[in-house]
Amino acid sequence: MVEPESTGAEPTVNSVPVVTQLENIYQDINDSMTQKHKPRYEQLARRFRDLYGVRPAFYCRAPGRVNIIGEHIDYCGYSVLPAALEQDFIMAYVPCDDEQIVINNIDKDQYPELVLTTEPTQKFHDSGSF
């Protein structure tokens, strides 16, 4: 990880912002930090610890997005006007050397565990899974 500059800015790795506090990601509007955001990360950390016996080393977050001008027109080379949504995707992980990627979901009943190899040329099965 790249150390923060003396300006107090958060570190970046290959232009991806790396933050260490939720307050640097979310605005605390109407106590949303305590009521919504922190509990989601705590639930994710508990599920991760229950499954793998360790705390997550890292979290990744991707905000939801909507295209104001229209869906899928960017695939045709037209301009779009995307906007981030409050809804987001969060993921916890630890790096490992066993050549597998194990994917689990908070909703384990609807989304069962999926184990992938790190083989970059792997193919989908007819069922749409690996």
Features:
130 residues; alpha+beta; Ribosomal Protein S5, domain 2; two-stranded antiparallel ribbon; 1 helix; disordered N terminus
Helix content: 10-25%
Per the CATH scheme, the topology name is: Ribosomal Protein S5, domain 2
**In the CATH classification, which architecture applies?**
2-Layer Sandwich
Please state the CA-atom Rg, rounded to the nearest Å.
18 Å
Instruction: State the separation between the terminal residues, measured CA to CA.
Output: 32 Å
Specify the structural class.
alpha+beta
Encode the helix/strand succession as letters: EEHEEEE
Instruction: State mean pLDDT (0 to 100 scale).
Output: 83
Largest sheet: 2 strands, antiparallel
Low-confidence stretches: 1-7
Q: Figure out the total of helices.
A: 1
Kindly provide the name of the CATH class: Alpha Beta
Proportion of residues in β-strands: 25-35%
What's the number of domains? Answer: 1
What spatial order of strands do you see in the largest sheet? Answer: 1-2
- Strand tally, please? 6
Give the overall shape, derived from the CA principal axes: globular
Please describe what this structure looks like:
Helix content is 16%, strand content 26%. The protein is globular. It starts with 11 loop residues before the first strand and ends in a 13-residue tail after the last strand. The protein has a two-stranded antiparallel sheet. A hairpin with a 2-residue loop joins strand 1 (12-13) and strand 2. It has one domain (12-117): Ribosomal Protein S5, domain 2. With 130 residues, it is α+β, with helices and mostly antiparallel strands. The chain contains 1 helix and 6 strands.
